[in-house]
Amino acid sequence: MEWLWGALGGVVAGGVAGPLIEPWSRRLQRLGRRAAVEKPVDVHVEWDQAVIWSGWPPWMSFRNYFPGKLPSEPPPEDGRDWSGWADRNGGVDLGLSMLRLTIVAKSDATVVLDTPMVSQHVRPVPEGVGVLKPAPGGPDVNPRRYEIKLDMGERPWVEFQDEGTPGPAPSWLLNKGDVEQLHIWARAEDDQHHEWTMELPLLVDGRRVRIPVDRAGKPFVTVGDAHPHKHLWRPADEWLTWKPREDPPGW
Fold first, then answer.
1. Does 222 score more than 80 pLDDT?
2. Where does residue 23 rank: exposed (0-12), middle (13-18), buried (19+ CB within 10 A)?
3. CA distance readout (Å), 98 to 145, 211, 237, 244
4. What sign has the CA pseudo-torsion 240, 80, 76, 225?
């Protein structure tokens, strides 16, 4: 019997296994090619303000909201570091969430960016405290971006702006390895708590591709800056109280 099993093994290995395996091999190759086609670009989402504004003058104010009370850890001196401070202590964005998208082409392609599709869940703001690091001065900062108004209803209003002026969405002719960057500014001027995510619809060589944009699998959170709870600002080394819509110096 051993000689029979050996002979059968040789037949399977040499004459039968090849025809049986070949269709599966071709199918796996097709699936691999299809997977490569389905993701022609990579998109990195950045929400750390220290990274986004690295190299820029400190001309912007930064705001956060902490449910409950202020953290025991004192805030950093530079407002660009406040997003990391908030992350470590359970804080979220107040009034404005600023993201930066980095789009990297994985093959030669024409990429057309359509208006992002934003989904959100809105609820009352839990009791807490909103904090502001005012800008020390300088001109307005207006990067190329999408502006999102979260307080315009279930379907937020979205508009592309180039240096602060509304305009058409961009299209790019990207070679493999080319990089484009785009900012997303989501605003909430109401008294609500907004949890939101976004899809970035692209046309890549005429084919529709939707790229999810979220916070590492979680929604972004933006608290409206008209919330009814405590408001503090920090122009120097101590906290001061301020009232909503009564802008402190350096706003």
1. yes
2. exposed
3. 10, 18, 25, 21
4. positive
**Which H or E run includes 7?**
helix 2-11
Positive or negative, the CA dihedral 185, 191, 194, 198 is: negative
| Mean pLDDT of the region 179-204 | 94
Backbone angles phi, psi at 159, to 5 degrees: -145, 140
Q: Which two tokens stand for residue 34?
A: 């299809």
Q: What is the pTM of this model?
A: 0.80
Whole-number pLDDT of residue 141: 78
State the virtual CA torsion across 67, 185, 60, 102 in degrees, nearest 10.
110
pLDDT at 36 over 80: no
| Average predicted confidence (pLDDT) for the chain | 84
pLDDT at 67 over 70: yes
pLDDT at residue 34 in the model: 45
Q: What's the maximum distance between 2 C-alpha atoms anywhere in the chain?
A: 94
Give the type of residue at 204.
V
Per-domain boundaries in the chain? 1-38, 40-241
Residue 42's closest CA among 107, 110, 103? 103
Q: Give SS3 for 34.
A: helix
